[in-house]
Request: fold
Amino acid sequence: MPWVSYLPSLAQGAFVTAWITLAAIAIGAVLAFVAGIARVEGGRAVSTLALCYTELFRGTSLLVQLFWFYYALPLIGISFEPVATGILVLALHVGAYGSEIVRGALASVSVQQHEAARALNFGRLHTLIHITLPQAIIEMLPAFGNLAIETLKLSSLVSLISIADLTFRAQSIRNLTLDSAGVYTLTLLGYFAMSLVLMLVMRLIERLARRGAAFPRAAHS
Amino acid sequence: MTENATAPLIEFAGVTKRFGALTVLDNFNFEVAPGEKVTLIGPSGSGKSTVLRILMTLEPFQEGRLTLDGLSYQEPGGTGPFRASERHLREIRSRVGMVFQSFNLFPHMSVMRNVAEAPVRVLGLSREEAQARAVDLLALVGLSDKKDHFPSQLSGGQQQRVAIARALAMRPRVLLFDEPTSALDPQLVGEVLAVIGDLAHEHDLTMLLVTHEMRFAREVSDRVCFFDKGRICEQGTPDAIFTAPSHPRTCEFLASVLR
Amino acid sequence: MMYGFTWDTATPLTYAWSILPIILIGLTVTLKAAAAGFAIALVLGLVFAMLRRSRFRSVSWTTACVVEFLRDTPLLVQLFFLYYVLPEYGLTLPAFLTGALALGLQYSAYTSEVYRGGIEAVPRGQWEAATALNLTRMQTYRDIVVPQIVPRILPAMGNYMVAMIKETPVLSVITVLDMMALANMIGERTFEYLVPLTMVGLIFLILTLICSAGLHRLQKVLPKAGIPLR
Reply:
């Protein structure tokens, strides 16, 4: 059973994949909220800026962005470690797609809720923090779950800028052993397992959030 | 800013409100005295709710003048649809409260927090003070036992009573009721009207009520205004309006709703 | 394919202008790959969606697992798998076809969900009416179900098509000469990546914006009630 000997190396790669993915999701989530809230609440200049960011990173291909940051930026004097580049580009991707999720969820909070907040003389910031965001976040979670899995899958692209993630390790082992079927099957299963774990975690978070909020989904739709 | 006994608390002077090509209020004049309880009746689309929504600063208006408690709604040189700064609008809102047709409770907050949240965040009360105030008000609307429930666990009538407590917690000078019982099942209307009826005895609370409950309007109001096509076409004491309406449109409307 | 081309790296603009013809050749490859991949995804997705609705539990369950697996694993690794493993079993495809197949497989997982949502959204009464009119299963799908789901699923399908176009650069790693591969080659020759990569990014941005605007138009034009096939 030769494939058993691949496991230690693949496991190391999987660890790198996991932490790059999680870091990208964490940073990307912050970007998503900033850009999404800017789209809804910002003045014209701020919301246009946020829109440009979103369209730019949604409209160009992720691999192009990755290579652009890795090969092109250093030529004008800006360079990062490969791992930082990988995390940054993935995070910008999550932020751009996530900002659409945040914007959509905020927009789905009913006009009546805004009016009730106004009638109670809440300011804009309080309305956002205490009234609309708490309701919107619950709506965002399923979409963010999908985005998280998307990010895990796309993180495989960082292997192309020489980061030793799961895909990179798989490539190295294949070049050494030429056992393509064994290596890639294991790798696919590895990603599948990580996706399932990520999915379970997101479901758990969603359930906890729903219980924490203690109001049923239908009540505010 | 000070007012003497005869000065109106609310004064609409030639207010015109349009939605696109549709004129909802047409050169509208209307005054309300401090502590007065006024009911607005009339066919739907006649502009009654718009009066309340303008007073709550939910809608801007295009022409004319509106003052509340000596405070003009539009600032000289103000910008935006309201022609006033957000700060000025919040100054106005601190004097007005509103109860909505569809309750509009915050679904993610308990009944207690629904009532106490704005006093904490907006008035700057401590949690304890705000909760004490909420406890009193929930007792007033008869829902002391529901304070830890969430809106989705309450009936429509209970939700509306919470909404009334929530509005009162801000101690407004003017309380606006926008068809507060229209979204309720008929058997739940009574409990909400009873609470509003109790409030009508409050001496210094000014109330504006839009409703289709004619018998109730007659019981609680000092004055009834009949709206038609963006104007008040007849107003007077409840007895005058309900027993001896003079305008043909009023007669027509009352005949249709009273049957 | 790079022979016979010269580039002028004097200024970024002249550089961009001189390499534009090469990049545009790459664009045609990108578009062809996306078109082929999406055609595969449309057909395979429908097959998956119908298998998923099979009366046999074993069939529907297996399909569900396959779809989930395709959806939860990276396109890049699927691509490597097809590229390196298929030849071991005697199936040697050109890189372009392997790439299109990988795109199609990955996106069939998405399109099958879109089909499924569309089919489930057809009211029960429509199926019952079709039964009452004694239509065959085939006729029911062709004349009743599909015409009704087309306007419903089109926006989602369109979005996936745009997403697929943006994923085609991955094919460059298995030697498909798309925009990305050519831009990289130019970069390697001139040690100047900024211009070619920026151009590729811009072209994707323009493509995406055009497609989004087109989809928006299409949604307005489509009759909400459905499109009869004949």
